[in-house]
Design brief:
It is built from 7 helices and no strands. By secondary structure, the chain is mostly helical. It has one domain. It is elongated. The protein starts with a helix and ends with a helix. The model has no long low-confidence stretch (mean pLDDT 81).
Length: 154
């Protein structure tokens, strides 16, 4: 990654995560789609909102609900699949959004500083919404685990 790419990535993910995402996005540049993220595994929907990725938030809001519903019908272990998918694909969702946003900003602004400022503004974290969504998400997790426990106890 060149200096400008690192600055854009830092604007997108923040100072505290840039080294992690440099490594992850480097791997995803090779065409990989699966990259493990523990935060996404435990907090998929909330983590997507925190990272301001509405498509991932929508997918990972629906996924635990479907997993829990299928768990009731097919057995509790299917609920774990939703968490595994969150953990494995969240970085890919973040990577795709980053690449699209970066390309859009590079076309829109010639000035490097305007690109970086716009990237920061477009990808700012949303901790208040993440906290509120975490409450909903934890309820979904609880429902999934209740389904798993009911399956195991049979």
């Amino acid at each position: 990654m060149n200096e400008h790419e690192i600055e854009m990535l830092e604007a997108y993910v923040g100072n505290d995560s840039v080294e992690y995402y440099k490594k992850v996005f480097g791997e995803l540049d090779t065409g990989k789609k699966w990259s493990w993220n523990w935060s996404a595994f435990f907090f998929g929907f909330s983590f997507a909102i925190y990272r301001n990725n509405s498509l991932a938030a929508l997918v990972f809001f629906i996924l635990p609900i479907l997993s829990a519903l299928f768990a009731v019908v097919l057995g509790g272990l299917i609920a774990i699949l939703g968490f595994v998918l969150q953990g494995g694909f969240m970085n890919w969702f973040l990577y795709i959004r980053y690449k699209k946003l970066k390309t859009k900003l590079e076309k829109k602004y010639e000035d490097k500083e305007k690109r970086i400022a716009s990237m920061k503004k477009s990808s700012r974290k949303l901790p208040i919404f993440a906290f509120m969504s975490l409450q909903i998400y934890l309820a979904l997790i609880f429902f999934s685990f209740v389904s798993i426990l009911s399956f195991i106890s049979k």
